[in-house]
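[Discussion] Sanity-checking designs against the backbone

I'm trying to build intuition for which residues belong where. Below is a structure token string of 162 positions. I'd appreciate it if someone posts a full sequence so I can compare it with mine line by line.
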């Protein structure tokens, strides 16, 4: 039983019923604010099961600001990233269907194409389609969202404290 409690405590997997705590503000001797955010999943064997999920320390050496969403992240992410997760997924789905339609109609109206040549071209179209989708997921969307988020954080950085 003790081994089971130890295993549950040390695994970085939380139940669906976890909660969060966010500590933010100025310490007694701090000139700049700090933030620590934790996810907490109860007490097991008289020990608090927790993991730190966010940390930020403002300082004089590094001019920066952060806007960190907690709880209902979707609205804050929409505001910061300039796009809703549902819309982003819809765009990816549309792009995927458009590329599939291009592949399907690539040979419409072309007569006499050999099966081997057609299969080779279809394979190339499939590879190119996957490369386009991968670029969208890994490069285009993260860069676009990062740029918008940076602009928002820069705006917050230069706002007066009040």
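Best answer:
Here's mine. Compare freely.
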């Amino acid at each position: 039983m003790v081994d089971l409690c130890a295993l549950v405590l040390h695994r970085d997997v939380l139940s669906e019923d976890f909660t969060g705590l966010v500590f933010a503000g100025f310490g007694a001797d701090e000139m700049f604010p700090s933030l620590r955010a934790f996810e907490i999943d109860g007490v097991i064997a008289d020990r608090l099961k927790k993991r730190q999920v966010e940390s930020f320390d403002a300082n004089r050496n590094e001019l920066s600001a952060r806007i960190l969403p907690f709880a209902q992240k979707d609205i804050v992410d929409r505001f910061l990233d300039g796009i809703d997760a549902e819309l982003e997924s819809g765009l990816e789905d549309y792009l995927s269907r458009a590329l599939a339609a291009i592949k399907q109609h690539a040979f419409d109206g072309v007569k006499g194409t050999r099966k081997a040549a057609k299969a080779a071209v279809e394979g190339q179209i499939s590879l190119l389609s996957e490369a386009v989708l991968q670029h969208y997921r890994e490069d285009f969307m993260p860069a676009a969202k990062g740029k918008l988020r940076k602009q928002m954080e820069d705006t917050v950085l230069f706002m007066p404290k009040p």
